[in-house]
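Q: What does the assembled structure look like for these inputs?
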Amino acid sequence: MPAKSRISPYPYWFFLPAAAIFVVFFLVPTVASFYFSLTYWDPFEARFAGWDNYVQFFSEPYLLRGTVNTLAFAVLTSGMKTVIGLLLAVLLTSGMMGQSLLRSIVFFPVLVSTIGVGLLFQELMHPTQGAINVALAAVGIDGPGWLTNPSLALFSVALVDVWRGVGLATLIYIAGLATIGPEYYEAARIDGATRLQQFWRVTVPLIRPATTTVIILSLIGGLRLFDLIWAMTRGGPGFSSDVLASVIYKQYQAGFWGLSTAGNVILFLLIALIIAPLAWWLNRRSIDS
Amino acid sequence: MARVELKDLRKNFGAVEVIKGVDLTIEDGEFCVFVGPSGCGKSTLLRMISGLEEQSSGMIEIGGRDVSRAEPSERGIAMVFQNYALYPHLTVRENIGFGLSLARRPKSEIAEKVAAVAETLQLGAYLDRKPKALSGGQRQRVAIGRAIVRDPQVFLFDEPLSNLDAALRSQMRIELTELHERLGATMIYVTHDQVEAMTMADKIVVLNGGRIEQVGPPMELYQRPATPFVAGFIGSPKMNLYNGKVAEEMGCRTYGIRPEHLALSETEGRWPGTVRHVERLGADTIVHMDAPDLGPVIARTDGSRSFAQGSTVWVTPNPEFEFRY
Amino acid sequence: MKPRQILNGGLALSASLVIFVIPFLFVLINAMKSPQEASQPDFALPERWLFWENFVTTVQTRDYALLLAYWNSTVITVGAITLLVIFGAMVGYVVQRRPSTVTRIVYMVALSGLMIPPAVVPTIWLLQSVGLFKTLNGMILIQVAYGLGFTVLLYRSFIGTIPRELDEAAIIDGAKPWQVFFKVVLPLLKPVTLTVIVVQSISIFNDFTHPLYYLPGRDNVTVQLTLYNFQSQFASQMNLLFMNILLITIPPLIVFIFFNRQIVAGMTSGAVKG
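A:
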């Protein structure tokens, strides 16, 4: 009798449908982008151009500004979400009154359309008629031009992004806090730890995995952000609040497709070069613990 | 002086009273074990002494001082948890020295004290390891070390050996008893295992439903149990307890006789019974029987004897060891 | 409840109300105003609450563009979710059940989709070459491609909790691989499937960037694009703009109210692994 051939009940062809879509619509363009970034490509012609696009990116002030802004924006929003998210999570697991309602309130903006949020805050941040500055004026403070002041525009968008996204960080931290057994705090109490000491020496170290997740997720999101910038400032005033994603779009609209794709590649490299080592470094430290 | 006094201690969780008026004195240097079934309140009682749980009413005194309102860190106690509570991100050295570093003691002092404790518990080789890299028994010793370094008046143990396997448990029992002799400190130990209670305690407190059933040295609880509950709880295998006809005959509500005090014979005796199941443990043989006059009976006899399942065997109680309640 | 907890609660509740709820109240109030009242949007209450009038006007704008947009968004969402659930589960299943170098690579590649920014212009070039540019079908396939990473992550994680013995029992009964998956495993995946549906629906519905690139023009516009396009249209009718924002916020709100648990579970489990 011939030996039965053992076919795995978990066949590789199960990957085919997903792989087909993923490869065609995601991987192929990604690979192609490396090539196209080395071309001059507009509605009329496509010719090889070597490093020209990249040179342009790092010499033209408005393009360079976009790259710098992207980094600054990502680091700023990630930092704020990490810190505020943890503080909120600690507050929202302390057994206070109205706790679960508050968790929902804080989290809901994560689910709302970014365009909606962007347009809303654009109105609220109007320099003279926006509700924020009107409220400030009522207590005698001269509110700044949140979105009209070039030095402030990117920061204002960052604030809105944190408003919108801190709920997710809080959620992740709350899940992480639940994994810390009460006996760690009890042992610390017996040793005489104050609440502040308990926070720094018990909570923060033991919540390292959640912190890693929050930092990485928010950095990736911050580096890639487009819709909020586009809705609130379109990269303006001028190009003071441009980020790579908006530069990519603007160059596309202008017909400089090769340049636009070069921007894509730069964004890709930024993410890869930042996230990969960061993830490795953060995870290595938590393995030790 | 590290004497512990509890006066009319009560605890309610909402409408449920879980500790119903406990009065207890634990002498300086005593090894006192709280024992009882799940839910009897022994852990709650321990936690109230530690200050982690606040009592609803009553007083707690440690070393002559009223600590009823004091923070756990101010009561002169140290606690060893069931799950050890060792910080996974700190080394053994840092875990033991944790409390001292919180109090901002100078590094030299911390190093000295940690070294002394490590010496006592033979943890020297592991000082720079993380808890992950330790076995269960080693982790337990680190937890004990963290308690010792506080130099407390009273040590509190919350079921510390429950997470260990049987062999390790018997070894740790001996180590803890030796530690007690060495340090001479007052120790309060919570367990559900009456074997631990019997072997380690100077004094046992049997708790049931939030109340103390009996307090006394192990042999006193074994030989003179005050209530049917204590009689049935202390001793393994459990004492045979009967209400109903037999008790009436004996002139009491509950009649008790321990398995080791029943004589077995295939020919004659007080009550007949049918053998359901025989456990031959080597040194002893445990016989499970059904006696029509009594109910289920457990008897213990010498390991060389055995009986066929289904056979009829007669049991006779030793009148010196009968209990009537 | 201890006094400190009530105090904390009170303070935090007030602060959160101001920071997180008031912006939405702002939208609600101004969505009910007349155009004149809303020309300078503020917190003054409208004279008359014009919910129905504003609602109707907004919906009728540009030949009921909003209705078409809702239809398009729904088609894209439903189409993409269907494919994502089936294909993503298939991948997650084999990746979890068959640990090997191949599956590990596949998993890493899928996860990379969470990090790598899509190359938009080359994608347009690709869509044009296959004739899917500016089509709903093209958009569906794009959303599937972009959503596979997260979906596979969730499925793989959940399938780890389904005992292998169930598959093995079915195999002994003579089931072929596709039968084992579709008849035994997939029905057991209802909880995570629900989570995937809820989380990805919101994500696809709220997506602005990708329809902006891949669905320009009037015909296949989505809800988000409509709101964006109406900015100039409603420049002098801010009340309608706010009504539009309100309408865009309501579907996720409804989903959140009913599927709170699934959303939370999906976000945290996906995040913790990622």
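Chains C and B do not touch (no CB pair under 8 Å).
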